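Supplementary Methods, section 5.1.

A reviewer requested that the exact input to the structure prediction be made available. We therefore reproduce it here, unchanged from the version used in the analyses.
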Amino acid sequence: MIRFQGNGSWSSRRAYDLSLYAALAISVLLFLVPQFFFIRQSFYEGMGMGLTGDQPTLVNYTRLLTDSFYLDAFVRTLTLSALATLGGLLLALPTAYYLARLSSGLVRWLIVLLLISSFVSIVVKVLGLTLLLGSSGPIPAILRILTGGWWSGSILHNGPAVAIGFIQYTLPLLVMLLFGVIQNIPRSLEEAALVHGASDWRMAWRVLLPLALPGLLTAALISFNMNMGAFTSAVLLGGGNVLTIPVLIQRKIILETDYPSAAALSVLLTVVVILTNLLVLAIRSGRAGSRQIEVLA
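The structure derived from this sequence is encoded cell-by-cell as follows.
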C-alpha cells in the first residue's frame, strides 16, 4: 500500500493526476473534434469545386443508400474484408500456436521480426506483393508451369489481389495477438486430452479452439476493422478496378472535391463497422448464454 506523507507528496500526486487528465482530455479532443466536423460536413450538399451548401440536408445519405453503385461497393468492401480476415486467421493461428509452444530462445527473435515487419511501411509491403504477383513475377511463372502454359496473366488489379494485400497488412498483428492468447492456455490441458486418447485434431477442436475463442474473436474483429478502412492495398493492388469504400472516399476528395459525399461515405463506413462488431458480439453473447442455460438444465 502506498502512503503519501506531507504536503509535498500530496501535491506531487495531484500534479500526476492532472497530467493524466490532461492527456486524456487532449486524446478525446483529437478524436472527437475531427469526427464532429466530418459528420457535420456530411449533412450539407456538395455544390462542386469544393463548395458546399448552407442548409442541412440528407441528400448525400439518400443518394448513397439508394444508388446500386455505392451499395455494391459496401458489399465488396465487406466481402473482401471478411475473406481476408478468415484467410489471415487460417495463417496466423497455426503460426501463433507453433511460436507459443516452441521451447527455444529463438521465439523472442521471431517475435522481434514480427514487430519489425509490422512497422514496415505498407507501401513497401505492397510493392513487394506487386513484384510477386505481377505478370513477370515468380507466382504467375509457377502457375504457368503448373498449368502447362495455360495461365498467361497476372494476379494483380482484381479482388483476390486486394484480399491478399489485406492479409499481408494484418497478418503480423494477428500472429502477435493470437500468440498471447495461446500462451495463456495451459499446455497441461492439451496433454491431458492427448493422454485420454484424443487425436491432435480432436484436441485442437474440442480443447484448444473453445479456450482460444474469445481471443480469436477479438483478433478477428480487429483485423476486420483494419481491412474495412485499408486504402493503400486496395488502391495499389486493385489498380482502380476494385472500388472499395476507402478508395471511393479518396476519389471523392481528390478527383471530385466533393467533401460532403466523402464525409457521408466515411460516416456510413464507420456505422457499418460498428454495427458489424455489435452483431458479432451479440451472436457470441447469445450462444454463450444458451450454453449456460443448457448446462444449468
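The chain is about 80% helix and 5% strand. These observations are discussed further in the main text.
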